[in-house]
Specification:
Elements lengths: L25 H4 L12 H4 L3 H17 L11
């Protein structure tokens, strides 16, 4: 089989239907932030564009301002 072809297997969504995107849900938000503290892209997160906007613009930024998430990870 050709290795360069995309896999036909469907990926499962990264957010279950019972999970809500909220700045207080830190365990969920940590999945969308890299080790350096950067917000991961929509393609890496496997989110819809609406979900990505909720994660990036509201939830992660609010959690950072309230010091629930760090702005950057400087523990090297």
């Amino acid at each position: 089989m050709n290795e360069s072809r995309r896999s036909s297997r469907r990926r499962s969504p990264s957010i279950r239907s019972d999970e809500t995107i909220d700045y207080k849900n830190i365990s969920l938000l940590r999945r969308f932030v890299s080790e350096q503290g950067k917000i991961l892209s929509r393609r890496m997160n496997r989110l819809t564009s609406k979900q990505q906007r909720l994660v990036a613009t509201t939830a992660v930024k609010r959690a950072r301002i309230l010091v629930l998430l760090p702005f950057s990870n400087n523990e090297i």
